[in-house]
Every structure is written in structure tokens, then in C-alpha cells.
Design brief:
Number of strands: 4
Shape: elongated
Strand content: 15-25%
Distance between the termini: 14 Å
Number of helices: 6
Radius of gyration: 20 Å
Strand order of the largest sheet: 2-3-1-4
């Protein structure tokens, strides 16, 4: 989706306030018809604006209080296969391919340090993974957010 108009931005802003708000509530809040809100939501969804409908959950609440970021270096030619194998490890909760000296940053959740060591060993055992470096997540200081980007986009629109 190349551009978002003021209606799209207002809808996204309202959803940022309350992601569970119903179409009816959104239409009342924004002064738009229910059909308009429904159509816009569909357009935004098809355009890939919404990343996920999965509710974010704290790994600690599931018994995995330790989080770490693994910087992983791989053989470039094997990256798609390696990524597929890493995605099969249940403790992997997110991964990003990045440029530079490191190929992947993999976010994992573990029960304790021994469990983290075992997760790292499973990743290192994948053919084509050359090395990894583990950094413990001490605290999330800035959570995932897009509201500042929406404000910037609104100012540019």
C-alpha cells in the first residue's frame, strides 16, 4: 500500500488505542459508516498493513522467564534451509535476517540458563550454522510501537 489517507490513519490510530475494538465501535468513534470501516479494514489487511492477529503473550507467563538474542552467522547459500530449521525450534519466538557481519538475530525464550544453553546447541547443530553469540535480554526498554510513525505519516499526508 503506497499511501494512507486521513481515514486510514484515523482508523489505525483508533486500533492502536484499542486493538480489540469492534467494527461497530470503530464506526461510532470515527463517525464513519460500518461498511466504510469494514471495507477499509479489508483494504488495509490485503495491503499487508496488519502484521499479525496473534495476541502477544509474555513468555514468562508460559514458564519461560529468560529471553535472549542470539546473533547467528551462517553459510549464505544455506540461509533459507537454516531459517526453516530454526523456525521448527519451539523456543524461537522471533528472528530477523540482517545485513552486516551477523546473518540472523534470533529471539528465544527459555526456562533457565541450562535450557538456553540447550537451545543454542540445537541451533549450532544445524548444518551451515557457523557460530552464534548469546546476549541475555535484561529488560525491554522500548516495546514494539508504530504510533510515532503514524504521527509522522499524518504530518506528511
Amino acid at each position: 500500500m503506497s499511501t494512507l489517507d486521513h481515514v486510514d490513519l484515523a482508523l489505525l490510530d483508533a486500533l492502536a488505542d484499542d486493538p480489540r475494538e469492534t467494527v461497530v465501535a470503530l464506526s461510532e468513534r470515527l463517525g464513519l459508516s460500518r461498511n466504510t470501516v469494514q471495507a477499509r479494514m479489508g483494504k488495509l489487511d490485503r495491503a499487508g498493513v496488519f502484521l499479525s492477529y496473534e495476541r502477544a503473550m509474555a513468555p514468562a507467563a508460559l514458564g519461560f522467564p529468560l529471553e535472549a538474542l542470539l546473533s547467528v552467522v551462517v553459510r549464505q547459500a544455506d540461509l533459507p534451509r537454516i531459517t526453516a530449521q530454526i523456525s521448527e525450534i519451539p523456543e524461537v519466538i522471533q528472528a530477523h535476517g540482517i545485513s552486516g557481519a551477523i546473518d540472523l538475530v534470533v529471539r528465544v525464550a527459555a526456562r533457565d540458563t541450562q535450557h538456553l544453553f540447550d537451545i543454542d546447541a540445537r541451533i549450532l547443530a544445524i548444518e551451515g550454522v557457523e557460530r552464534s553469540e548469546t546476549s541475555l535480554v535484561m529488560e525491554e526498554v522500548i516495546g514494539y510501537r508504530v504510533r510515532p510513525l503514524m504521527e509522522l505519516a499524518r504530518g506528511e499526508a
